[in-house]
Amino acid sequence: MSMTTGTQTWVAAGPAGTVGSIHRDGEGFLVRVRVQSEARGPYPTLEAAKRALHAALGPGAERPDFREH
């Protein structure tokens, strides 16, 4: 029996709309910030990826709301 790991996506939304996303691929999480072309990561946990995306938004940015998509 072989196991297949599916992908999961969380969309990050702030007061101005969608600001980025987190993608689970295998054992790690990749972060994509809407205004940047390169993905960041991989991060070992979803919580670490959420913190990284929030930090990438810059000083004073509100923590976005994360929803699985």
UniProtKB/TrEMBL annotation:
Domain of life from the UniProt record: Bacteria
Protein name stated in the entry: Methyltransferase
Organism in which the protein naturally occurs: Microcella alkalica
Lineage: Bacteria, Bacillati, Actinomycetota, Actinomycetes, Micrococcales
